[in-house]
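=== RUN LOG ===
request id: a7f3
mode: sequence -> structure
chains: 1
length: 165
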Amino acid sequence: MHDPVETAISEMAGGYKPGGYVGLAKAIDRNPGTFFNQFTFQERNQPGINTLRAAMRVTGNHGPLHALCHEFGYGLIALGEYQDCSDTDLIDCLTALGAARGEVDAEVHRANADRRITREEALRVRARAMEAIRANLELLSRLDALAEAETQAEERRALRAVGGA
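=== RESULT ===
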């Protein structure tokens, strides 16, 4: 098997503890024989999207998702699940974002000082850029949490105004 997506799927299922393919099949309530054939890509067998989603949830292994993103030229970054955030959390987020952006610029400046970019320099810039992307996405998650909290507060105020809860 040389397809990176199929490899990631098979490694996720085969590496599940306890029991590898059979253990994972049982954990997500699938027939072990069918599951094995699907997750090892036996002739004309492949997992369905819901089975794959269930397997990734149970294993916590998102390798197949990373492989799919890579195949199509996308990156994958996990987002936090924030319910709300304070003003100081938001300030921390904004300043972390600014610092991360500055680190990207500084790394590019250092890398380009001799007017050429080596593979190692490009990798360092990439790492700094990924940190900045994560900071941007965290800021967006925090803002979404604030907006959701405000929506819920408005709903509570409206209910109280009409004599509800």
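=== NOTES ===
DSSP finds seven helices and no strands in the chain.
The mean pLDDT is 89.
=== END ===
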